[in-house]
Write the structure tokens for this entry.
Amino acid sequence: MGAGNHGASTPLIRSDSQPVARRTASRYVCQDCGAVAPRWAGRCDACGAWNSIVEEPDEAAPPRAIGAGGGGRRLALSGLDEVGPDAPRRATGIAELDRVLGGGLVAGSAVLIGGDPGIGKSTLLLQAVCALGREVACLYISGEEAVEQIRMRAARLGLAGPSVALAAASDVRDILATLDRPEAPGVVVIDSIQTMFVDTLDSAPGTVAQVRASAGELVRLAKRRGLSLLLVGHVTKDGMIAGPRVLEHMVDVVLYFEGERGHQFRILRAVKNRYGATDEIGVFEMTGSGLREVANPSELFLADRSGTEGGRVTGAVVFAGLEGTRPVLVEVQALVAPTALGTPRRAVVGWDANRLAMVLAVLEARGGIAVGANDVYLNVAGGLKIGEPAADLAMAAAIVSSRLDVPLAHDTVVFGEIGLSGEVRPVPQTELRLKEAAKLGFARAIAPRRNRRDAYGLNPAIEMSDIASVDDLLNLFDPPGSPYRAPWRQAAT
Ligand code: TYD
Ligand code: MG
């Protein structure tokens, strides 16, 4: 595209000058979601973000209809059943990354890796190109760090990559000039897309217009040359820098790298994948020598379990969950405490607050567990975020255990979905969940009745409780006649 600019003849210059005259017009673009507003406002109507609207020169050409017989080229059509070449995949050599990608990087594809600054995106990609570099030429382009800095980091992490090239650049025109050649490398990392700019736009790097235009150029290049493009995108809340959200539709795969500050665990999650499933996660641990793959997340999430065997810890329950195709055991903790405030607090980390409200309402209405005047805190250990409805029963068990001050047996896992009428519904993949639990030394499962029937005899190592409703769950903690049986609950049932 660069060549045409120099040989411009006079009429072209004149038609070029028209948009300059129009540039007095501005538009107001939300830097978070890309919505265009007619005038400046403190809050974006489309996504609700504050202070995210920025004035940008209106550079869009006025829409023109193509008209009848517009001189287009007829498309070549091909049948759905025709056998085409399989998209070649390159395994990165980092199993947790490959799992999330759906088996490896696809040639000619664009992958966006979003995440908070400092979460480890550059580290992950540096490790990935060094692993990939054994088989294919890779190029790591940084707009944030100097080449020497990247080299030092690689040396500190003990990484070597004979066929990994580095460059510090942010002008997309230069990057295209380097890459738009037959001998281009097979894998290209752009760190980060917010630092890239195209010189045909006036807006500053990091604005929606620049981020979109730069990504558009790079993605087209990747398709044209069949190279795998990895784009880093920072997620920021301050509205000055366009978030990766505006790019999600332009790329083939969107991964988010998440983790709690202060936790070592990092979770790589696919939110869009044109070449694979989106419910897989990759688990890493940030160590002094880079990111380490965690092949068995359950061991990691249970590593610091509160209390010891025989210890009396209430409010802690192990949930037998599923992330993609992989079973993950994780401890959930609840604390129900009398409130000191007029309105009790409900605080959740790692789970949906609406789901907590529902479980509390069902426990109160169907089980007679009064929590209305208590603060309820719920925490998923290790910084994992749980999205499965199958976690309902584990959350309920943790809340009941804390409210009644009765611990659950240490060797028990819990799973099941709770309905509004207090019924406990079956969840998929009982066998996988039980197998993982047995592997890690658990002997009991509190699970829905249907799952128990389906799993009968499958896993003799695990004894399953028969749970059809929240009342059955309460009876485990508070069997009739036990000293724990609370008078207020007797009144309710
Ligand atoms: P980085 O990959 O630069 O994050 P991003 O590119 O997402 O902004 O990671 C930066 C953080 O990771 C930094 O705060 C320090 C930490 N870190 C380690 O703990 N160990 C390491 O070996 C490396 C390279 C980084
Ligand atoms: Mg970085």
About this structure: The radius of gyration is 28 Å. Residues 115, 117-123, 153, 157, 286, 288-290 surround thymidine-5'-diphosphate (ligand 1) (CB under 6 Å). The domain at 89-295 is CATH 3.40.50.300 (Rossmann fold). Residues 1-23 have pLDDT under 50 and may be disordered.
